[in-house]
Specification:
- By secondary structure, the protein is of the alpha/beta class.
- The chain folds into 2 domains: 141 residues, no CATH class; 61 residues, no CATH class.
- The protein has 8 helices and 10 strands.
- The strands form 2 sheets. Strands 3-5-2-1-4-10-6 form a 7-stranded mixed beta sheet.
- It is elongated and about 60 Å long.
- This is DUF7794 domain-containing protein.
- It comes from Zingiber officinale (Ginger).
- Pfam families: DUF7794 (PF25070).
- InterPro entries: DUF7794 (IPR056696).
Length: 260
């Protein structure tokens, strides 16, 4: 994905949570990703004991509200308000007003908050990356004002909804060319494969005759296509200054179909 384009136009938030049904709680992780030309997010901070900060979903939701230019909910505890100050730079007049919130399904535990190849790649693409584990209540709501003040865009259109076999073949071919990968075979052949080049230098081979691999590829292409369309729309709205704040919400389910 064109992370630098996304970060130029908005602040990116990756979120993964796993609900613990028996206790009504969740665990997971979140990454707030800032661009080079803006400074809304601090470097990862530590608490008084030297441990990385952990956030609740309520605190994540409040952080998003503030980044959109709105006050946090009055019910937010003082301790949580203090935590927001450890995440955000204290400039009430300089906010991104545009958030791209991507929920990553199938990522178990605190993966987004831990060092990995993916975090190293993000560090090369972004200005600041603030990562945190998430625990506590599984219920949280982003406090937003009326529709006249904020636009909510859902990136939920999938290839399955609008694509036949010929369309899917063309989408896969174009996607492989765009990412510098390769695409061989066809829907009716046994060697139907999409190869994706990774930032580590290795490759990911998706054997598309396998249902899970095809669903992963379709989910990835849908996400990229939706992001491109939304970024183009965002630029138009920004130029016209029609709406002061915008939140783009997407869900990537490709990992779920492979792991579960």
């Amino acid at each position: 994905m064109e992370f630098r384009l996304v970060l130029h136009l908005s602040l990116l938030i990756l979120l993964s949570t796993q609900q613990l049904q028996a206790r009504g709680e969740s665990k997971g992780s979140v990454a707030f990703i800032d661009g080079y030309l803006q400074r809304y997010i601090r470097n990862n901070a530590q608490d008084s004991s030297g441990k990385a900060i952990s956030m609740s979903l309520t605190e994540v939701a409040a952080t998003i509200s503030v980044l959109l230019g709105f006050a946090p909910p009055p019910s937010l505890p003082a301790a949580s308000s203090s935590k927001l100050s450890q995440v955000l730079y204290p400039n009430p007049f300089d906010k991104p007003h545009a958030i791209f919130l991507l929920e990553v399904g199938g990522v178990v535990g605190y993966v987004l908050a831990e060092p990995s190849d993916y975090t190293e790649y993000l560090n090369t693409q972004a200005g600041e990356v603030f990562k945190s584990s998430i625990s506590g209540s599984s219920n949280a709501k982003i406090e937003l004002p009326g529709e006249d003040e904020v636009s909510v865009v859902h990136l939920d259109r999938t290839l399955d909804f609008e694509c036949n076999d010929a369309c899917l073949d063309e989408e896969l071919r174009e996607f492989a060319s765009w990412i510098g990968g390769s695409y061989v075979g066809s829907i009716d052949s046994s060697d139907w494969k999409l190869t994706i080049s990774l930032s580590s230098g290795s490759t990911l081979d998706l054997h598309l005759t396998k249902k899970s691999d095809l669903q992963f590829a379709s989910s990835l292409i849908s996400l990229v296509t939706n992001v491109k369309k939304t970024m183009a729309k965002h630029e138009v709205l920004s130029g016209r200054r029609i709406i002061s704040s915008e939140i783009m919400k997407g869900h990537f389910s490709g990992i779920e179909v492979i792991c579960f």
